[in-house]
Each structure stands twice: as C-alpha cells, then as structure tokens.
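We were asked to recover a plausible sequence for a given structure. The inputs and outputs are reproduced exactly as logged, with field labels preserved.

PROBLEM: sequence recovery
POSITIONS: 707
GIVEN STRUCTURE:
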C-alpha cells in the first residue's frame, strides 16, 4: 500500500465520521437549534442532507398581484408594507400586507405564535398558496413563504440565484434560508467526498444520479427535471437498502427451518370431512404453502383474503401438516371471542381426526390455564389456539413447527417475532400470517416486505350478494320497520352502535342505549341481544352462541363484532353514524353478512350533513364490495400512515420515500434486490461490494417502525 492510498482511506474514514456527526456541532447551529432540528428528525449531518424539500416554488412563474384570481394557486412576490396582530374571537390573527406595485394583498396566519417576528417592514417576500378574496381583499391563508433579504445576507443571494426555491416541510423556529445555507455549507465542504452507495450497473440501468449529485440537486436543482431525478435517486437508494436488509434476513434463515412433507394422512382425511369443495383460490394457496413447508428454510407467508373467503380452512390444513409429521402447531388470534370461535369451529374437524386441541386465553381461570400450559409443554396438545397469552414467557412448546397468526394487522411486529421464538430446537417455525384487511399491494410489499404473499381472490360459491345503501337519519324509522319485517321472516341482523373513539365505556353506553330503544320499538316476539367490549368474556361468548343458534333476531353491537365472527344466517347489518367509521372498519363490519346463500343488506345511516371525506367513504361502500378496491380508495383518501392496522402495527416510516407516490419504485427495488440476492446471496461479487461497504459504514435503509 503506498502513501497515496493510505491518505485516501483516511479520508474515506473521515467522511463517514463527518456524516455521522451531530448537526449541533456545525457552525451556527448550537444546542438550541439542534433541538429544533431534532424535532424534524434531523440529528446527524447526513440526516440534514437527506432533509428533502417538499416542493419547489418556481420563481419564474410569479403572478403580478393585480392578476391574482380567487381560488387559484399562485406565487406572488412583494414588499412588506405593514404587519399587525389582532384578536378575532379567541384567536390571534396575524396579517402581513405586501405590494408589488401592481396591487396589494394580505398574507394571514391564525394562531401561529412567533410568526410576527419573522417579517419586517420593507422585507421582500415570496409567498404561495391558494388565493381567496375576503371582503374585497385578496388573501392567502397560511402561505408557503420566503423572505429574500439578499443585502443583509450575502450568502443567501447565492442560494437564491436559482429560479427554484425549495420549500421544506414545516420548520418551526428554523428559517428555511438558514437551513439552505447550512446544507450548502456542508455540500461545499464535503460534497465531493460523499461516498456512493449504489453499484454503477444499477444506477445506469435505472437512470439515477450519483449520490452526491442527487443530494446536491434535490436542494438546489436548476430545473424541475433535475429535482425529479434527484428525488428518484434518493428514494431508490432508501428503498433499495430497506429491501436489502429485509431480504438478507431470509438468506440468513436458510437451513434453519423444519422441512415438512405432506403425508396425506390427517390432511387427506381432513379434506374428506369438508362439506364443500375448495375454491380454486384455496387450492392454489394450499399448493403454495405445501411447497414452502417442504423447504429447509422456514415459510414466511402472508395470506390475504377478504372476509369470508375461507382462510380458516387453509390455516387448519397448514397446522395439520405439522401434526401429521409429529409436530405441534399454534394459531394466535387478536381477541378472545375470535380465539374461542376458532376453537369451536376447528374442534368440529379435529375431534373426528383425533387431533388434540388446547385453548389458551389471558383471562382463563388459573387452573385451566396451568392445564393448558402443561399440555402444550408435554406435547399433548397438537394444536393450540389462543390470544396474546401465547407469547408470554411461560408458554413453552415441545415441538412447535407451524405458527399461524389470524388478523395479523392487529398485532405488532414484535409480537410476531415473539411467537416465532418458540420453535422446536431454536428453529424457526413455518409462519403463516393471515389478514382480511386487504391492503394495497405496494403497502403489503413494505409492511410485510419480508413475506411472500398469497391471495385468496375468489369467494366460495353460492354466496348471496350484498346490497349496500346509504340512508339519512330522517328515514331511520322506515329502516327499522323494514328491519322488523325482515327478521320476522327468519333473517338475523346486526345493528352497530356509533363508534366513540378511544372509549370502550362510552361506546358500550351508546350500544346499551340503542339496545333499550330498539327493545321499546320492536313488535312483540322479536328478540334482541346486546354485545359490547365492557361485558365479561363469558357473557360475550354466551351472547354470540345464542345469536348463532338463532335465539336472538337482532344483535346490537359495538365494533367488537368487527373481526372474524361467522353467523351465516345474519343477512342484515345496520350501522348507526356510519360517517364516524373508517373505510376499512366499515368494510370489515359488512364482512359479517353475506356469508350464507341469501341476499344481504348493509344499511349505513348518517346525519344529513357529513364531511367530504366521509362522503367518499360512504360512496365507496355503496359502489363496491371488493376489499382491494376499498383499500386502494382508503389509501387515496387517508394516505398510507392512516391505513387501518398499518400505523399502529409496523408501518415503516421512510425518510424520503412515500408509499403512495413511489409505488413504482417500491416494486422495482424489491424485485431488483431479490434478483441480486438470488445471484449473490452474500454480496461478495465485485460489482456488489459497494453494497456491503455501505452496510458496514452507514445506518442506511433502517426505517422506524411506527408502533
Ligand atoms: P375468513 O377468510 O373470513 O376467515 P372463513 O374461513 O371464516 O372466512 O370462512 C367463511 C365461511 O365460508 C365459513 O363458514 C366456511 O366454512 C365457509 N367456506 C370456506 N371455504 C368454503 C368453500 N370452498 N366452499 C363453501 N364454503 C366455504
Ligand atoms: Mg377468519
């Protein structure tokens, strides 16, 4: 090694160290500003460079104020004539008046503390947003803004020389100009040394910039195309390393599984017991699972299938494969009601097959629980069904080879992992997670990025269809008299009480009230039951059983019936204050009906006025019963962070990538990474060495799992 090389190596070390350094040590930052940066997720210098603008204001398209029209998105530039704060009702309102010589207008903020200190008379301001006209005055409320005081801050002029002004996500307390200057300083100091992360062949194949160009141009592009490619490059890089890390784990787990061959003993007899023919989709999924389980790498499979599509049979089959090979299987469900229902349904098949089944719930009597634990430990229980109680430390399996999780979205990533630690001889059990919350494919690829996906996209035959109607409150009485007529004909119905966010107690009260009301309204002979989350587990179980046996015509319920309950004779669902429910929730609820061959009805009752978003949700419900379409619409309305079950339960939060906008790159990077790891599982080929080096030196591709 000659001196020159040593020098380069030291430099490389320095740059990594520099990028890892905290921003507070950068000139002009200090502890106070560092605190503000931290709120934006920026701790290190590298975080700062990756702080991508949300958009750019194109200074070439500034509209003269006299041409500003009501309702248009505009960017205006002008000088501050005056500013002032006043109180309107209880709110502080801050107004800046600007003029550009053609006309004047107001910029207005409500309740934004500290904003008045930002502007001074005489400042040159660029502002953009939607224009309104209020009492004859043109106004932009809460504009994106930028103060251009080139004279005071010479460095600023250089930054603003370009025509595209980056707009950062809300940077309370930190002036955008300060951030830009800081970023520019960093780039000018070390910009050229920022190490590359993606192999050349990948960058060429997908038309990406080098990392250092991308980091420069995302902040200071000369045109929008540069900004776009810079962003694409950084999104690609982020997702690429996200998948490298996820899928690398799978490479590591090769050889750690328990290969299981289908012997057609129990499984064969099980198929003969079924009272129905499997659907094509069920057969296909079963074949996929069979192939997975034969390998010496553990299966990691997500089974997506709309409510009622018949996932339980698939789960039973999967567990029986373990049992006929002399191993144990476990199934975890999110609620006690659901676990009990699985226990009952599965017992019907398992008892004739002489398969021993145990139940484990958190609230079981101590004696019963000990007994179950002992049966699990000794291997007497072939199949165990339970709730979160299963992941406690005191649960030890003798020979666990298959783990199934039902309604996976109700569990967190960690809970998933805990169950998997209980495999036989420290091996990883084959793992099947099931969800009836259809999530769009791209989300599945990230939330469940390490899982293979099977989809049951076909309903069992002979299902009556579901008609969904959206009805205003004024017609409620008519809905209920129709309901009473229907149940007299022998149909059963659910009536769902209004959702009361975060309060089981209030929700239970609302359900109780509704129950009393219906009891008063109902004609003689109609029996009504009540179920809610504040009832004891035993009581709930009794009510569910009675409803299933037809002892009630109508069941008034809260969302405790949302998940998994199966009563084929229930053909009507009425949801009160449907506008309060999320789309995924409404869809789940509706999934409780349409399970038999009769036509079913879902009636959504709302006040006459509902919000725009609620309207879109209700319309979507009326228009389609396809869970995947519903999920796509939900994603559009709410954005990925809000999609049910992903926010609380392990939705990765990316630095730059956006799960809605970047769907294409998500797909491309995942399949590219799969190819790379197939061809070069340990990343030892020269063209991939850069990946290994990056992993060793940077915390790249590590995402925060929310929840
Ligand atoms: P989910 O996918 O929501 O868990 P289930 O497994 O509970 O659905 O199945 C719903 C109902 O459909 C059950 O009563 C089940 O016995 C029945 N079922 C499942 N597969 C078929 C099939 N291939 N043909 C007819 N009925 C079926
Ligand atoms: Mg189910």
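RECOVERED SEQUENCE:
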């Amino acid at each position: 090694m000659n001196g020159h090389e040593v020098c380069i190596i030291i430099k490389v070390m320095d740059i990594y160290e520099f990028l890892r350094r905290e921003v507070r040590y950068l000139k002009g930052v200090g502890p106070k500003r560092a605190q503000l940066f931290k709120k934006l997720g920026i701790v290190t210098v590298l975080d700062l460079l990756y702080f991508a603008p949300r958009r750019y204001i194109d200074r070439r398209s500034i509209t003269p104020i006299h041409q500003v029209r009501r309702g248009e998105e505009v960017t205006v530039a002008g000088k501050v004539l005056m500013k002032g704060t006043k109180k309107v009702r209880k709110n502080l309102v801050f107004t800046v008046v600007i003029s550009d010589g053609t006309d004047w207008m107001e910029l207005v903020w409500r309740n934004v503390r500290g904003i008045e200190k930002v502007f001074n008379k005489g400042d040159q301001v660029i502002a953009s947003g939607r224009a309104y006209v209020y009492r004859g005055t043109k106004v932009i409320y809460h504009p994106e803004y930028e103060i251009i005081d080139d004279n005071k801050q010479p460095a600023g002029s250089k930054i603003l020389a370009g025509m595209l002004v980056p707009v950062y996500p809300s940077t309370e307390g930190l002036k955008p100009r300060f951030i830009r200057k800081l970023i520019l300083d960093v780039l000018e100091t070390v910009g050229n040394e920022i190490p590359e992360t993606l192999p050349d062949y990948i960058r060429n194949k997908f038309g990406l910039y080098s990392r250092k160009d991308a980091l420069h141009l995302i902040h200071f592009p000369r045109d929008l195309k540069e900004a776009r490619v810079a962003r694409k490059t950084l999104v690609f890089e982020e997702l690429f390393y996200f998948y490298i890390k996820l899928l690398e784990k799978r490479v590591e787990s090769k050889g750690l599984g328990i290969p299981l061959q289908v012997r057609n003993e129990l499984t064969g007899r099980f198929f003969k017991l079924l009272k129905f023919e499997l659907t094509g989709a069920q057969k296909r999924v079963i074949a996929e699972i069979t192939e997975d389980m034969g390998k010496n790498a553990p299966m990691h499979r997500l089974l997506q299938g709309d409510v009622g599509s018949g996932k339980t049979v698939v789960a039973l089959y999967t567990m029986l494969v373990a049992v006929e090979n002399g191993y144990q299987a476990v199934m975890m469900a999110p609620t006690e009601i659901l676990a009990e229902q699985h226990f009952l349904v599965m017992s019907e098949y398992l008892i004739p097959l002489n398969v021993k089944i145990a139940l484990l719930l958190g609230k079981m009597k101590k004696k019963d629980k000990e007994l179950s634990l002992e049966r699990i430990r000794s291997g007497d229980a072939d199949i165990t069904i339970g709730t979160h109680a299963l992941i406690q430390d005191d649960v030890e399996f003798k020979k666990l080879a298959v783990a199934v999780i039902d309604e996976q979205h109700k569990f967190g990533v960690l809970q998933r992992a805990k169950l998997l630690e209980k495999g036989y001889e420290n091996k990883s059990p084959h793992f099947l997670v099931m969800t009836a919350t259809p999530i769009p494919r791209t989300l599945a690829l990230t939330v469940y990025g390490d899982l293979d996906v099977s989809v049951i996209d076909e309903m069992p035959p002979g299902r009556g269809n579901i008609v969904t109607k959206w009805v205003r409150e004024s017609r409620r009485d008519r809905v209920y008299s129709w309901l009473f007529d229907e149940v007299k004909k022998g149909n059963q119905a659910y009536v769902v009480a209004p959702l009361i966010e975060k309060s089981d107690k209030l929700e239970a009260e609302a359900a109780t009230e509704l129950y009393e009301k219906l009891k008063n309204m109902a004609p003689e002979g109609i029996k009504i039951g009540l179920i809610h989350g504040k009832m004891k587990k035993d009581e709930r179980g009794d009510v569910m059983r009675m409803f299933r046996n037809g002892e009630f015509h109508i069941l008034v319920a809260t969302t405790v019936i949302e998940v998994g309950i199966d009563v084929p004779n229930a053909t009507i669902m009425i949801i009160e204050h449907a506008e309060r429910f999320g789309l995924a929730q409404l869809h789940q609820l509706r999934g409780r009906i349409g399970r038999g061959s009769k036509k079913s009805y879902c009636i959504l009752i709302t006040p006459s006025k509902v919000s725009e978003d609620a309207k879109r949700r209700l319309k979507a419900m009326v228009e389609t019963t396809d869970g995947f379409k519903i999920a796509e619409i939900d994603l559009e309305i709410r954005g990925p962070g809000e999609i049910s079950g992903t926010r609380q339960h392990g939705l990765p939060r990316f630095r730059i990538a956006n799960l809605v906008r970047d769907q294409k790159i998500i797909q491309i990077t995942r399949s590219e990474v799969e190819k790379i790891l197939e061809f070069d599982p340990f990343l030892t080929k020269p063209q991939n060495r850069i990946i290994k080096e990056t992993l060793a030196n940077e915390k790249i591709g590590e995402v925060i799992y929310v929840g």
